[in-house]
Amino acid sequence: MTDAFDDLLSANRSFAESFPYRDLEGVARAGVAIVTCMDARIDPLGMLGLQVGDAKVVRNPGGRVTPQALEAVVLAVNLLGASRVLVVPHTRCAMGSATQEQMRARVADAAGQDASWQRFSVVDDQRAALEDDVRLVRAHPLVPDTVEVGGFVYDVDTGLLDRVL
After folding, report:
1. Model's pTM, two decimal places?
2. By CB count within 10 A, which of 57, 140, 144, 155 is most buried?
């Protein structure tokens, strides 16, 4: 039986033949946690010179510190070896290019059905959202004061990070 996942399963079997990560533990070896966008132009480990096993990576639309992302950060800094947290939205992000209503209309057009009930993590002001997100992580009672939290913007055209906070 052929299906839409055959190419990926075949690639996975090749990957598994020489699987290099069997001895890795679940901690962040470099002490890093990253919250960033799901955008395919972002290589969260590569942009920081890190490798698999070095960091905990949380990805979502817009790279926002959502309740789920904050949960992951709390786990990373308390149980998984992270002592530095980077919050990293990026340039030319779709979540910063539309209002809630516009995003709902785009999705409705693509899906062919009503999307007026769906909430999307759009941002009116990326810098203000980044400031809020960094403040949220820093203020969380389960994120120790010893954890360094920084806000950065990743440029999808140059690959450079700009430290904002």
Report:
1. 0.94
2. 57
